[in-house]
Amino acid sequence: MSALAKAARGVASPLLAAGLLLAAMSGCSEKAAEAPAKPTGPAMMPQSQVVMFGAGSSQEGERLYGEKCAFCHAGRNTGTIMLGRRLDPATAELHKRTDLQADYVKAVVRNGLVNMPPLSRVEVSDEELDRIAARLARNGRK
Fold first, then answer.
1. Same-domain pairing of 29 and 59
2. Residue range of the domain that includes 63
3. Do 58 and 118 lie in a common domain?
């Protein structure tokens, strides 16, 4: 076999492999384009509302929740994203939940849970936490 034939043979294999790879990838992109859209879950509060959550509310627990908690637990933020992955995305925003108990809220805030760090009494006082927990538990089991 001549040197030219050997060189051509050495180039043909990588070119053939590249062609097969491109053909396979193009088939994937066509299938991906045909795939139905993944559901995104319930609509979450827009960020422009998250920053003002609870401001002007006559309910002190709601105002405190907006000040201390909403940054992570309202709209599409760290707390709601993490809760949405572990639980039903419809229950990711804490202020919309109906299954929370005040004692549970307080325990999670003080001790942390999974990705949520514990918050000290300097960050959220006991009095503030009592009001926030009561607000979140307003629709929950007594």
1. no
2. 47-136
3. yes
CATH label of the domain that carries residue 124: 1.10.760.10
Q: Is 142 within the bounds of a domain? A: no
- pLDDT tens by residue, the chain, 142 residues: 565 455 555 555 665 555 555 555 555 544 444 544 444 555 666 665 666 666 777 888 888 988 888 888 887 878 888 888 888 888 888 888 889 999 999 999 999 998 889 999 999 999 999 999 999 998 655 5
Q: How far is Cα 6 from Cα 23, in angstroms, rounded to an integer?
A: 26
Helix then strand then coil, in percent of the chain rounded to 5, is 60, 0, 40
Other Cβ atoms within 10 Å of 125 Cβ, number: 13
